[in-house]
Amino acid sequence: MKDYKNYMDNLSVDETLHEKIMDRLAQRSTRRHNVTNNFRKYIFVAACAAELIFVVSIYPYMSI
User: Fold this and answer.
1) What integer pLDDT is reported at residue 34 of this predicted model?
2) What is the percent of the chain with per-residue pLDDT over 90, rounded to a whole number?
3) CA angle in degrees (0–180, nearest 5) for 39-41-46
């Protein structure tokens, strides 16, 4: 690991490329991940609500 750190410390990149990379990293937002995680969390809630509505309102009127 020490060799890798030394390699990375000695690695040089073009200044404009470095600025582009840093700008892109600064623009990233964790908001996108939070929205995705919230969406996944509420899919289960929506499925349960749909099933409950089916059982309460439609199922009793079905003639089996």
Assistant:
1) 62
2) 12
3) 80
